[in-house]
Amino acid sequence: MKKHAFDLKFWLGIGISVFFMALLFRKIDFHQLAAALKMVDYRYIALAVVFTFISYFLRAVRWHYLLISEKSISLAALYPATIIGYMANNLLPARLGEFVRAYVLARREGLETPAVFASLVIDRLFDGLTVILILLVTLFTLRLPGNMADAETALRAGGLVMFLLYCGVVFFLYLLKRQTIKTLDLVAWLLKPFPQRVGERVIPLLGSFITGIRLSSRGGHILAILASSFLIWTFAVLPVDMTLRGFGIHLPITASMFILVLLVFAVMVPASPGFIGTYHYACFKGLSAFGIADTTSVSIALIIHGTAFFPVIIAGFYHLWSGGISLNSVRKAREAA
Length: 337
What we know:
Blueprint: H1 2-25, H2 30-38, H3 42-67, H4 75-91, H5 97-109, H6 113-141, H7 149-178, H8 180-190, H9 196-212, H10 219-246, H11 253-266, H12 278-288, H13 294-322, H14 327-336
């Protein structure tokens, strides 16, 4: 039964990807597309790839500080696990690369996989909070075309709501860590209107999860986590800007920030492995908002996706090989997830 459900999700993702790719290419002249790709200054694309890998390295730095209360792990172990995880995200559905990343590091360092995975949940919370801040900064400084005034207002309101929700989640986790029993009692009280089995499942899960989180309270460590979060997304924005420059397009950096936020939301939509279709269409629509021609927008979307997709897959397989990690181990991590 589980296998059937998984296959259903997989093929649904394939269908969504095909739908968005069809939307993307239905009015595109492929001769013009090929000509646009030939005119790119690929020196900027090479820089985009370099900046992408710097952002992955900075993720390893942040992961070091997220795990430091559990164990001080070298970047020589954290960086390959990070790359392997992102490779798996590109090749497996449902972002299973996060589980692969946790499994690979836990196996190498002799840690409990749930504890490592708990650190990645916090990792994603910092990502989400940073992305929402980028969205707010972008929307309150960037002026979209006049015909998008209503969309701009809606995005601002949505961004503020999301930011407040994220702050609420962070505050809840803080209370759960500092006042675990009282917070679990409060959650149990809030769940009373629901069937009893809901509370019986949620309360132990929350208790197990928060036990696995051992975030350092030292000021220097917290500062390192915040600084690395800022730098991670700085070097995630730069590849978009470099790609635009490669096509001879010079927009303010806030335009690249806006496009990146759209891409982050796009990868949340169920799609085929590699976020094919949803990623490209979001990039295309973001570029179109700045009056960039359709063919050029599609070309840019293909390059941005390609620089984020293929290099990390190659690097991921290299780290699997150099670390003596078999594909069978990755399969086991997927099955465990």
